[in-house]
Amino acid sequence: MSKGDEMMRKGLWFLLAIGSPLSAQTLSFERLDVPTATHPYNLEIGDLDADGRLDLAFVSQVGGTLGVAWNRGEGMFDVVEVADALARPEALALLDLDGDGALDLLVAEADEDRIRSFMNRGDGVFQDGATTEVGASPHALVVADLDQDGDGDLLVSNFRGGSLSVALNGDVGLEVVGELAAGGGTERPALADLDGNGTLDVALPTFMEGVLHLFLNDGAARFTAAESIALGSRQHIPSAGDVDGDGDRDLIVTSSGSGEVFLLGNDPAGEMDPITIDLLWETPWAAVLEDLTGDGNVDVAVAEYSGHRITVLGGDGSGGFERVGSYPVGQRPHQVVAGDLDGDGRLDLATANDADAFLTLLLSSGWPPEIGPDR
Question: 223, 229, 147: which is closest to 183 by C-alpha?
Answer without folding.
Answer: 229
